[in-house]
Amino acid sequence: MDTYEELPEEDQKALLRFPVYISLLAANANGEMDEAEKNTAIDFDHTKTYTANPLLLGFYERADQVFRSNFQQIDNELPKGKLQRDVAIKVELRKIKELLKKFSPAYANAMHQSMKSFKEHVSEAHHNVLEDFLFPIPIKGLTD
């Protein structure tokens, strides 16, 4: 299988939640999601509609249409505690991982790499150039 459009509708809906779960997992590293992380995730999802691997462009065009609503719904449904939230997200990600087995290795690899960049981008939501200039060496409690 070469595109997500070839999946049954229920599987498509599940896969479209993939970037949301990745974003929420990345944001939960400190135990809570703030507006900077949320806005970064939404903006990054939108940029993926024209910067993603060509194999994934159709997926991201559709994901962009439902990202905000999926994000809000999933965020509200997940447990609020850090540990419980991580566990719940990882359970859902395992289900999505099974869906990726239905795709060609090229498509699955492209999706994996894309989600890795998604996680890294959201994780860096608070990182900025001024911080690097002022604190080029990480200082525990101040820059990490």
Helix and strand topology:
Layout (H helix, E strand, L loop, with lengths): L8 H8 L1 H10 L7 H17 L5 H21 L4 H19 L4 H19 L5 H6 L10
Helix pairs in contact: 2-3, 2-4, 2-5, 2-6, 3-4, 3-6
User: What's the total count of β strands?
Assistant: 0
**Helix content bin:** 55-70%
Rough outline: globular
Order of helices and strands: HHHHHHH
Unreliable sequence segments:
127-134
- Work out the strand percent: under 5%
Please state the structural category.
mainly alpha
The total count of helices amounts to 7
CA-CA gap between termini: 42 Å
Sheet of most strands = none
Q: How large is the radius of gyration?
A: 16 Å
> Can you tell me the number of structural domains?
1
User: Could you report the average pLDDT, rounded to the nearest whole number?
Assistant: 81
Could you walk me through the main structural features you see in this protein, from its secondary elements to its overall organization?
This protein is an all-alpha fold and 144 residues long. Helices cover 69% and strands 0% of the residues. α2 packs across α4. The N and C termini lie far apart (42 Å). About 6% of the residues have low confidence.
